[in-house]
Amino acid sequence: MSAETYDLPPLEATGVPRARQMLERARWASRAFASYDRASVMRIVEAVTRVAEDRAEHYAEWAVRETGFGVVADKVVKNRLCSRGILDAYRDHDYVTHRVDEKQKIVEVPRPAGVVLALTPSTNPVSTLYFKVILSLMTRNAVVVSPHPFAKESCADAARVLAEAAVAAGAPDGVVQVVEEPSIPLIDALMTDERTDVILATGGVGVVRAAYSSGNPAIGVGPGNVPVLVDATADLPRAAAKLVASKAFDNSVLCTNESVLIVEESVADRFLREMSRNGAHVLDDAERDRVRDTLFPEGRFDTGLVGKDAAAIAAKAGVRVAPRTRILVAPFDLAVDEEPLAHEKLCPVLGVTRVPSAHRGIRTAAAVLRIGGAGHSAVIHSKDPRTVMDYAVAVNVLRVAVNEGGSTGSAGFNTGLAPSMTIGTGFAGRSSLGENLQPKHLVNLARIAYSSDVAERFPDFGAMAPWSAPETAVPAYPVASNLDPGSGSARPSLTTVPEDGTSELREELRRLIIEELNTLIRG
Amino acid sequence: MSFDYGDFSFASKEEMLEKSREFWNPGKTDFWVETGVPLVIDRREDYFIYDMSGKRLLDVHLNGGTYNLGHRNAEVASAVASAMSHFDIGNHHFPAVTRTALAEALVRSAPEGLTKVIYGSGGGEAIDIALKTARHTTKRRAIVSIVKAYHGHTGLAVGTGDERFSKLFLSDRPDEFRQVPFNDLPAMEQALAGREVAAVIMETIPATYGFPLPAAGYLESVKRLCEQTGTLYIADEVQTGLMRTGELWGITKHGINPDILVTGKGLSGGMYPISAVLVAEHAAGWLTEDGFGHISTFGGAELGCVAALKALEVCNRQETRSMVHYISDLIGRGLREIQADFPDWFVGIRQNGVVMGLEFAHPQGAKYVMRHLYENGVWAIFSTLDPRVLQYKPGILLRPELCEELLDRTEVAVRKAWAEVRSSGRGGRHGERGAA
């Protein structure tokens, strides 16, 4: 064997080695957490939810101030939905206790992912952080949050507050951590580090593709481009109110917000008037051109306008609008790639195109999805279930919100879908996840499977309790073993004084002194 | 199988050992072969060392904490490697950017009251500096240490330790160096009563003596006695510092602000020799009176300072502290489980964080366990001055799987050592001599 030549260790970017150490600490935490029983887990989740909800306003204001995106009041709503709302939705679910299927002679034992790397976006920073942290804790995972650099201060603070609440309620130390100074090399290091068990990527296409290219298991989702079809059977006043509210919500930074309105010609004028009544400004052709040029200078979306309000965008485009205008509606004729208004717009500008029939509207919606947003979501306002079914079949999405606003409807906050800040876009949207992200996606099940032989008796597993509550702080503080009553029966000897004639006397004196000292220490 | 290291090579491990005997240290070379631990460390990485034979060992000796952060820790290694494009050892006569930066970092990390830093090139030199500093400050000559203490082998340090090492070189000075039994407060009180002692020097947990733990209140009382008698308290934190007890400096767990604190070994991550003495302002007089009072060409070598800055940063991270608590908890529990299976053999666990001494019911018990650990892929060393006790020093950045593997290997070694002891009868086949 000849000695190897060593490569010098790589000189990693500032902060990267420490970030890797966060993953190691998270592994220790996740191992400890994976043995917690359900009552302990729920106590932690309750405590974290409570502080998250209590600070919903605080972080909503902070996030808007830090990023310049969105609306404080709407972010308050989202922060509540992603704290109390999530807990309420999953309170009765159990991701901890084993489940017994006597018929199949199978026992399912939950096995958490381990270390979750949660990337959070700039548009929904704290709400996504709340969501991913609470999901991780419900499923006994440790989580390292890597916030978008635009929102790093509010997110780091929120993560620290949640971490403290979790530990105070008995969670293992290090169960929630946050990268305070995110950078591209640092995020890349975290994503590719083998100590990351699963990446939850929410953000731009680049981040999501990087997550999937990391070599680690990843749950990332593609972008949306949401068509909304309003057919002649729709309840027009109600649909208009829902649509405007959804489009205006948090200035459209949710990926589930409506992008293009497709309205049946026969009801179009009435519907647009209803929308105007709810705060929509329908642009004329000249105004539309100015808004289009403002939003898409040289054909590319100006990200500086993400999450800005309608008045600001109108002002920038030189369009006069009424003071209480909530959204701008921009008419166009053809949903094709070269039409900028048919693309995703993370701001309160809604494209609108008129169609002669519901059938033609379905074709147009399919066309919108060809431009972008495959696998994501669509909305329809209709009373005709046949149309709804045709729409769902033809339009390449994995959820269709019916007679509800897309923003919160597809995100599951006022539909029966799983409430979520991460919308799985499935195979079409290049994602491993086709549903709304929910706790069950962060747990595997180890299955105990008995022989199917009729003679093989299936024992009673129902009463077993493989998990337990932590006895002390986790981990226990390292008290010297001779001072720690909990460290076992065979105690180390306190002294190793050599034997001589005076040792007995010394022993006696020492005992007296120690007694005296102990009394003093106890006060 | 040949061993080609570029500028030198050996045809075999046997040839290497032969030359080691011939040109280096026959006593040491033979000792390990005879002890059943014929280790010549070749490759090393993480918490593993590899014998020339290729045998892999999980290192829980860490050379006394030198490899606290693992072997060739990537962060420290790359800091030193990149520093070599700008720095060398430097010139000790002058102020230096690296020495100043490290001194500030050390002071900011230290127990309250320590305000100045003096550098050495190794632990022994640092102890000498501490003792000289205490003598200068108090104008007293006597030094009190613990029976079976070990603080190094340099001129003054050797006097504080076991006479095995001082008498060999006619360097024992019983008039100046006095020893009292550990955990014996009346003896300490008596030793200090004459108010002629410059300093008490103590390891917070005496390593080479097998990590006997200070009894409740013992160190605190010694510190108080020092204050009452004008004696300085020197905390030797070479093995208990740098997060090994779950706090950066073990002495702070006792609420003690020492007058002088000594650190070395792991301070530079095992990549470059450096040691440091932190002194309180009231003991730092000579640095003003005669700043050239202690001179050391390699003391505070600038590359060492760069290594130490990085190692100190890693040790002091909250992530590291958290991990040490986890490691200490997991290994402590695991050892107690093993102990429960061998209550008549594995008779004690002395533990403070990842500073651990395992006691066995045989005068040379730790040597048996050491050998069986070696056979089972773990390197831990017995305590020279109490060979019943195995020094068991896991690294502070160990990952969970390695801790579990360590415990698995340890269980087998403890079991096999017990079987050997039982079958051979008590008495032991190994001599009293040993490593430091």
Provide a short characterization of the protein structure.
The complex is a heterodimer of chains A (523) and B (436). Chain A is α/β, with parallel strands linked by helices and 523 residues long. Chain A has helices spanning 16-33, 38-54, 56-67, 72-90, 125-138, 152-168, 184-192, 205-212, 236-248, 265-277, 285-295, 310-317, 358-371, 385-394, 406-409, 503-522, and strands at residues 99-101, 106-112, 115-120, 142-147, 176-178, 198-201, 218-220, 226-230, 258-264, 280-282, 327-331, 349-355, 375-381, 397-402, 443-449.
Task: Describe, in plain words, how this protein is organized in 3D.
The complex is a heterodimer of chains A (523) and B (436). Chain A is α/β, with parallel strands linked by helices and 523 residues long. Chain A has helices spanning 16-33, 38-54, 56-67, 72-90, 125-138, 152-168, 184-192, 205-212, 236-248, 265-277, 285-295, 310-317, 358-371, 385-394, 406-409, 503-522, and strands at residues 99-101, 106-112, 115-120, 142-147, 176-178, 198-201, 218-220, 226-230, 258-264, 280-282, 327-331, 349-355, 375-381, 397-402, 443-449. In chain A, helix 2 (38-54) packs antiparallel against helix 5, helix 3 (56-67) crosses helix 4 and helix 4 packs parallel to helix 5. With 436 residues, chain B is an alpha/beta fold. Helices cover 39% and strands 17% of the residues of chain B. Chain B has 15 helices and 17 strands. Chain B has helices at 13-24, 26-35, 62-65, 74-83, 97-109, 123-138, 157-160, 163-167, 185-192, 218-229, 286-289, 302-315, 318-341, 365-375, 400-424, and strands at 3-4, 9-10, 41-45, 48-51, 56-59, 114-120, 142-146, 177-180, 197-203, 232-236, 260-263, 275-280, 346-352, 355-360, 378-379, 381-382, 389-392. In chain B, strand 16 and strand 17 form a beta hairpin. In chain B, helix 1 packs across helix 2 and helix 9 (185-192) packs parallel to helix 10 (218-229). The chains are: A alpha/beta (523), B alpha/beta (436). At the A-B interface, helix 1 and helix 16 of A face strand 1, helix 4, helix 9, helix 10 and helix 13 of B.
